[in-house]
Amino acid sequence: LFAGEITFVKGVVAMDGLPAADRPEMCFAGRSNVGKSSLINALTGRKALARASNTPGRTQEINYFDLAEQAFLVDLPGYGFAKAPVPVVEKWQRLLKSYLQGRVTLRRAFVLIDSRHGVKAVDEEIMKLLDTAAVTFQVVMTKADKVKEQERAKVLAQTRAALQKHPAAFPEIVLTSSEKGDGIATLRAIIRRVTLE
Ligand code: GDP
User: Fold this and answer.
1) N or C: less crowded end of the chain, CB within 10 Å?
2) Per the database record, which ranges form the EngB-type G domain (predicted)?
3) Which domains, and CATH codes, for the chain?
4) 59 Cβ inside 6 Å of ligand 1
């Protein structure tokens, strides 16, 4: 991704815990189980890296990874988990809003969408938050290896249609499979480009 080390920096539970805003950052959002950890592992080439953020107790934290001191990769907690108690969800939504609206170095958000399921109501909610915060976001389809060509085309069309309603949406959709490696190089290139912009 970049020449240099990729390391876990910290898990953040409140705005005052954010690391110094001294480099560009990009965040990754998606429903629980969308394949976010697998994607971050594939992007960074570090198998155990994003697992740290999937362990119980870590799941409501904003997890920061340092990309060779050039950029931060930010792993946002998976959403749409009906099991989480209401106060936990509300606290998380407040933090998410503050983060998206207040983080000046946030360059782009990647919203992960499962290639089998397409855009769901909870994804729409995140997209609306991103519109409000004026954070440009780009959709990344995950688990592309799990669907056949015809199904993929259908979900892609549905996703494109959904994105038209969102002024902050970037039109290009990236198809990925962490399992097969599809789209990983493309996404890495986007991360490098956005960092250097
Ligand atoms: P997270 O909750 O969003 O972090 O999701 P995970 O990365 O833990 O993935 C959830 C499940 O989907 C796991 O069983 C993964 O092995 C599987 N998975 C993730 N990415 C892919 C992929 O690209 N292809 C396939 N076939 N399975 C995947």
Assistant:
1) C
2) 22-197
3) 6-196 (3.40.50.300)
4) no
